[in-house]
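ok trying this again, last paste got cut off
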Amino acid sequence: MYPFAYTKPADTRAALAAGARGGRYIAGGTTLVDLMRETVERPGTLVDISGLPLRDVQAAARGGLRIGALARMSDVAAHPRVRTAYPVVSQALELSASAQLRNMATIGGNIMQRTRCTYFRDVTAACNKRQRGSGCAALEGYNRSHAILGTSEACVATHPSDLAVALAALDATVHLLGPDGERSLALAEFLLPPGDTPDREHDLRPGELITGVEIPPHPQSLRSGYLKVRDRQSYEFALTSAAVVLNITGDVIRDARVAAGGVGTVPWRLTAVERRLAGARPSDQLWAQAAAVAADGARALRHNGFKAELLKRTVERQLRAVGGTR
């Protein structure tokens, strides 16, 4: 680990000032500290924002739910409003990490966590995320865990967050605060696919920090759930996952939102699946037909071709779990 300075601002204004001077924000530290130990990240100054008043989980001004960026994963997963109205969020959080990590890690940090690609974490390997233009060792290396959707010639690393997949299916918004004031972005706009700039993972301006995540209002008839498929049931990242959100009234699917994890460079909305579901009547046949297009557009690498079929099966299983068997 390289030497660094440390400061813990007393309020939000002081934190923004320190961030504007180039400091890196840290709260739970469950990702950043690991990367610093491995010398992947080398911040000159850490700005500890854990004392800022950003922990509330409360009703949003326009309905829905607002979750403070510094709320702990375990607290959000256990929150009665989250468990009742948005079980997909509770389930994604509980499947994300060990209990010890969930007690430390924050919602904002979870969204901001960096890829688990082994080549990204190996400073001797070529990685365009660490140094743009250096190459991508995963393209020709061992790439079983890598992405099949949203990839580019510059990067094929998966986004690691389970929570972000659930939030993508719920059309969540990320609230930001920086030197130029407040702004909000849809999660789909905040998390950036690699393209030609894989080192730029978020639409985050210098000195900005996440203040919260907002889930828009949804009908009471909403059903949701999260399924994660992995090599082992203990702490492990997804090979595939599916967040399913269905509004079924009068035995008709009025709205369907499905997102996948473990297969995309960002949480991947399965719009082709959603189109098959909207306006249809739930049935086992429908779940199978919709899931059959889940991997449309996938581009497999040498070792991860199995993910396309696994994604279809994961989506079908979770559609049946959330929508019911008929």
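PB: full thing came through this time. The radius of gyration is 20 Å.
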